C-alpha cells in the first residue's frame, strides 16, 4: 500500500476528495476569500478529508486560502499540492518548469503559503519536455527524504512516463482527468498505475460541471472561464453532448439520485484505487457530491453508464490544440 492510501486511512478520509481549484482559478472570477473560507470549513464539517490545491491555482491564492482554512486541522487531513507549473508574476503567463531547483523552491514557498511543515502528496503538475522525468522525480524524491513531502505525485502523464518515473523513485499517485465522458486513462494509464502500485486520482470526474447539469449554455459562461476554449463546450459540439447526457439524467431519476452522484459512483466503481476529487464553489453541490460516497452501482448499471458516453460518441476533444500541447497523457486515435 502506498503512503497515499495509508494517509487517507489515517485521517478516515472518504473515497471522494475535494478539488479546490474552482474557488480561485479556471472558471471566471475568484470566490471572495471569506465565502471561500466558509465553503472549505463547511466541507471539512461535512466529512471531506482530502484537499487538493496547486501553486498554479489563482497564482498561489488557492494555497494561501487552504493554509488559512486548514489551520488547526492540518493533522486531520490529507493535503495535496502541485509544482512545476506556475503563473509568472512578470508576464502573467503560465510557465511549465520541471527543473529540480525550481521544484525545490516552489515546494518551500508552498509550505509557507499552506502554513505547514509537510505536504502529504506533491505532484509534478505537468511534464516539462525539456527536463527528463527522472530528474524531476528524483528532486521530489529528495524532498520526501527530507520530510517536506509525504509522497511523489504526477499529473497528466502517460503510462510510459509513469514507468520511467517509478524506475527513479516510487510514485504514490497520478492525477488524470477521468469521468464518464473522458476515458483516456483506460487506454494505458490505469493498467500502469496498477502495475506500479500507484493511486489514480481522478480530477474533473463531473466533466467540468457538464455531468452535473451545471452548464446549460456555454455562451453564458463568464469571461475567463477555461471551458470557453474547450472543444466539447463549443456550439457545434455541445448540443450533441447534451443529448448523450439525457440518458444519464434519466437513469439518475430512475435510481432517485442526482446525475452528479451517479457520475461519481461510476468513477468509484472503476476500482478502490481510483479516487475522484470533484470541485465546486457551491456548498450544496459539495454536500451532494459527498453523498455519492454511499452509492454503490451494480454491474448492470455500470455497464449501462459505460455505454452511454464512449469516447467515439462524445463530440470534441477535451482540450484545444494549444492546451493539448502541454499534455503527456495518451489520446484516442480519433475524435468526433
TrEMBL record:
Region (Disordered): 317-336
Pfam entry (one): Aldo_ket_red
Domain of life of the native organism: Bacteria
Keywords annotated in UniProt: Oxidoreductase
Gene Ontology cellular component list: cytoplasm
Ranges annotated as biased composition (Acidic residues): 327-336
Family matches, as PROSITE patterns: PROKAR_LIPOPROTEIN (PS51257)
InterPro entries named in the record: AKR (IPR020471), Aldo-Keto_reductase (IPR050791), NAD(P)_OxRdtase_dom_sf (IPR036812), NADP_OxRdtase_dom (IPR023210)
NADP-dependent oxidoreductase domain boundaries: 16-307
GO molecular function: oxidoreductase activity
Record protein name field: Predicted oxidoreductase
Organism annotation: Vreelandella arcis
Amino acid at each position: 500500500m502506498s503512503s497515499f492510501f495509508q494517509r487517507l486511512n489515517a485521517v478516515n478520509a472518504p473515497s471522494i476528495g475535494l478539488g479546490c481549484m474552482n474557488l480561485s482559478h479556471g472558471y471566471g472570477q475568484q470566490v471572495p476569500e471569506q465565502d471561500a473560507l466558509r465553503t472549505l470549513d463547511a466541507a471539512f464539517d461535512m466529512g471531506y478529508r482530502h484537499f487538493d490545491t496547486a501553486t498554479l491555482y489563482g497564482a498561489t491564492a488557492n494555497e494561501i486560502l487552504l493554509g488559512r482554512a486548514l489551520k488547526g486541522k492540518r493533522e486531520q487531513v490529507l493535503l495535496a499540492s502541485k509544482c512545476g507549473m506556475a503563473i509568472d508574476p512578470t508576464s502573467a503567463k503560465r510557465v511549465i518548469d520541471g527543473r529540480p531547483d525550481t521544484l525545490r523552491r516552489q515546494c518551500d514557498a508552498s509550505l509557507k503559503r499552506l502554513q505547514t511543515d509537510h505536504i502529504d502528496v506533491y505532484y509534478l503538475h505537468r511534464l516539462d519536455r525539456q527536463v527528463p522525468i527522472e530528474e524531476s522525480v528524483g528532486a521530489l524524491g529528495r524532498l520526501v527524504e527530507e520530510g517536506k513531502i509525504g509522497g511523489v505525485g504526477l499529473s497528466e502523464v502517460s503510462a510510459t512516463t509513469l514507468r520511467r518515473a517509478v524506475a527513479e523513485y516510487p510514485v504514490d499517485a497520478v492525477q488524470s482527468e477521468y469521468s464518464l465522458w473522458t476515458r483516456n486513462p483506460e487506454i494505458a494509464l490505469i493498467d500502469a498505475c496498477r502495475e506500479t502500485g500507484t493511486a489514480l486520482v481522478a480530477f474533473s470526474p463531473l466533466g467540468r460541471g457538464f455531468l452535473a447539469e451545471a452548464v446549460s449554455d456555454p455562451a453564458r459562461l463568464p469571461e475567463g472561464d477555461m471551458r470557453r476554449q474547450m472543444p466539447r463546450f463549443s456550439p457545434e459540439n455541445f448540443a450533441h453532448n447534451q443529448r448523450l447526457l439525457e440518458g444519464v439524467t434519466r437513469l439518475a431519476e430512475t435510481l432517485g439520485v442526482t446525475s452528479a452522484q451517479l457520475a461519481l459512483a461510476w468513477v468509484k466503481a472503476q476500482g478502490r484505487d481510483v479516487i475522484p476529487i470533484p470541485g465546486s464553489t457551491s456548498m450544496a453541490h459539495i454536500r451532494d457530491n459527498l453523498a455519492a460516497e454511499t452509492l454503490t452501482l451494480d454491474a448492470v448499471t455500470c455497464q449501462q453508464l459505460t455505454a452511454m458516453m464512449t469516447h467515439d460518441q462524445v463530440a470534441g476533444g477535451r482540450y484545444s490544440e494549444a492546451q493539448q500541447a502541454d499534455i503527456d497523457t495518451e489520446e484516442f486515435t480519433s475524435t468526433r
